[in-house]
Write a structure and sequence with these properties.
Blueprint (H helix, E strand, L loop, with lengths): L8 E2 L15 H13 L5 E3 L11 H15 L5 E4 L5 H13 L4 E4 L9 H14 L4 E5 L10 H10 L3 E6 L3 H11 L4 E4 L6 H7 L3 E2 L6 H12 L3 H18 L3 H15 L16 H14 L12 H7 L3
Parallel strand pairs: 1-8, 2-3, 3-4, 4-5, 5-6, 6-7, 7-8
Helix pairs in contact: 1-2, 3-4, 4-5, 5-6, 6-7, 8-9, 9-12, 10-11
């Protein structure tokens, strides 16, 4: 297996924005990429639950891969989650995603209930062995109908060397032993918006794959932690934690409100949903606007400082 650089840091997973006609908005995708790169992200991810993959056709998902890769222009790695339900479907998608510029792919347990764990592992292993791109595995027992045990994930990595990273999602205490063991030979990322990210980092995770609306703060947290300034990193985490908790109550709320917070931070004031979408309430939008005031606009240039309000809330000045 050819050597690859280890992955770490913050790899935001982008939202799918739509135009008034309900079609994907490429300008919004480009703007997300530009602002995530300006914030100092270490990679770009897409086609996970946050990207509303369940509302996208295969052609639309491949378009997003191509658009993101073109905008990134090899400045950071691009990873795409694979959603097809068969081995051949996944391999066809991966081949085309590679042609359009993806650097990594993420596999999930296929959403077929009642399948023995050994068959799920066989499915993932066969795709990983035949994939033309390096593979990560996402296991999310809190938000996905099908998942596997941590021991099974470790065995999967040992038996299939093209599996290079894991996204370990769940309460930090329940994945800590897994993260410590897995991080010896592959990269381990946290999820769930970074709700327990400092704890995840202490347990062995090397990075985070969150939604993008907090990318500047989470990159800043990563830099503080990497520089050994763990107390300041913890303080910044406490300052953004109310936003993360608000977004983490359910996936539909994250998509509805998180996307609107991202839009406000990008300077946009109108979001066109692809129906059906949970109702957005006036009170909910009041909270989103309050969060936007705390966080300020997303950076337009590299190394732009965090908003004065956020720095004050975190005690960084």
């Amino acid at each position: 297996m050819s050597p690859l650089p280890r992955l770490s840091g913050v790899h935001p997973i982008l939202y799918a924005f739509y135009g008034p006609d309900g079609r994907l908005d490429r300008d919004a995708l480009d703007r997300q990429v530009d602002m995530c790169l300006a914030a100092g992200c270490h990679g770009i991810a897409l086609l996970g639950l946050v990207t509303e993959v369940f509302r996208l056709s295969t052609a639309e998902r491949l378009d997003l891969v191509g658009w993101a890769a073109a905008r990134v222009a090899r400045r950071v790695p691009v990873m795409a989650t694979v959603a097809e339900a068969s081995v051949h479907g996944q391999l066809d998608f991966i081949t085309e995603a590679k042609r359009r510029g993806a650097d990594w792919v993420v596999l999930q347990p296929p959403p077929v209930k009642g399948v023995p764990e050994r068959e799920i592992l066989r499915f993932l292993g066969e795709v990983a062995d035949r994939s033309p791109l390096p593979v990560g595995i996402q296991n999310n027992p809190l938000n996905m109908d099908v998942s596997v045990s941590n021991d099974a994930l470790l065995a999967l990595h040992r038996n299939h060397p093209n599996i290079r990273f894991m996204k370990a999602e769940g309460p930090a205490v329940s994945v800590a032993a897994f993260a410590r063991e897995a991080s010896r030979s592959c990269d381990v990322f946290a999820g769930h918006g970074g709700i327990e990210w400092p704890t995840n980092l202490r347990s062995g995770c090397q990075g985070l794959i969150p939604a993008p609306e907090l990318v500047d703060a989470q990159v800043a947290l990563w830099r503080l932690w990497s520089a050994g300034e763990t107390e300041r990193a913890e303080a910044l985490h406490r300052a953004i934690l109310p936003v993360i908790v608000f977004m983490s109550r359910s996936l539909p709320l994250l998509i509805a409100y998180g996307k609107r917070l991202m839009a406000l931070r990008m300077g946009w004031h109108e979001v066109h949903p692809r129906l059906p979408e949970p109702g957005v309430t006036p009170f909910g939008m009041e909270e989103i606007r309050r969060f936007a005031e705390l966080l300020g606009p997303l950076p337009m240039a590299p190394d732009a400082p965090l908003s004065p309000a956020l720095r004050l809330a975190a005690g960084l000045d």
